[in-house]
Design goal:
Number of domains: 2
Strand content: 15-25%
CATH architecture of the largest domain: Orthogonal Bundle
Radius of gyration: 20 Å
Structural class: alpha+beta
Oligomer: single chain
Largest sheet: 5 strands, antiparallel
Distance between the termini: 12 Å
Shape: elongated
Number of strands: 8
Number of helices: 4
CATH class of the largest domain: Mainly Alpha
Order of helices and strands: EHHEEEEEEEHH
Helix content: 25-40%
CATH topology of the largest domain: Hypothetical protein yqbg
Length: about 190
């Protein structure tokens, strides 16, 4: 199974102005650094929680449909399924009709419920491609504790400038506490 980022976030959950206000930084000298810290903080929060904060497009590919009649999607929160294709060994593809699947996105681990006669990938070299729209949406939809965790990470990294910081999985306890209610555990 492979996940490929097709279109990354168009914005970040924190603006440069919000981060600079939190840091109490005036001027533009540090803008490049602060912007990279914002992106790094988003990625750290996403990795720690297994949640995508801002809307983005991903392609998930695997070799065969599951026997169970459903498949748990590897991203959270899932907003929509954009397209499903079955690809043959030569790269040709067939779109799967939307009547043959249903998205159950009400769970922390969204699942795709499959039905009907699904086109099958070639036995050798074929695959299924699912295009997934995931993430909370824009910054206004990201839960505030996750944005606060990002602010704290930006401030910590801005002040430390590379000094080693103790903490669970590289995160300080205050940030871990903010993220704990949002962590999605992966069993498989």
């Amino acid at each position: 199974m492979t996940l490929i980022l097709v279109t990354g976030p168009a914005t970040e959950p924190l603006t440069l102005a919000e981060a600079k206000s939190w840091l109490r930084v005036d001027g533009t000298t540090e803008d490049g650094l602060i912007q990279s810290l914002i992106t790094s903080a988003r990625l750290a929060v996403e990795a720690a929680t297994n949640r995508l904060l801002i809307a983005q497009q991903w392609r998930w590919s695997f070799e065969a449909w599951p026997d169970a009649g459903f498949v748990y999607l590897p991203l959270t929160p899932v907003r929509a399924i954009s397209r499903i294709r079955v690809v043959d060994a030569l790269g040709g593809s067939v779109d799967v009709a939307s009547s043959l699947y249903r998205l159950d996105a009400g769970l922390d681990r969204a699942r795709l419920i499959l039905g009907g006669s699904l086109p099958q990938p070639a036995a050798a070299g074929g695959s299924v491609w699912i295009d997934i729209s995931a993430g909370y949406g824009d910054a206004t939809l990201v839960p505030e504790p996750l944005r606060l965790a990002m602010r704290q990470l930006v401030a910590l990294w801005f002040a430390a400038r590379g000094d080693e910081q103790p903490g669970v999985a590289g995160l300080p306890a205050s940030v871990s506490a903010l993220l704990a209610p949002y962590r999605v555990r992966r069993l498989a």
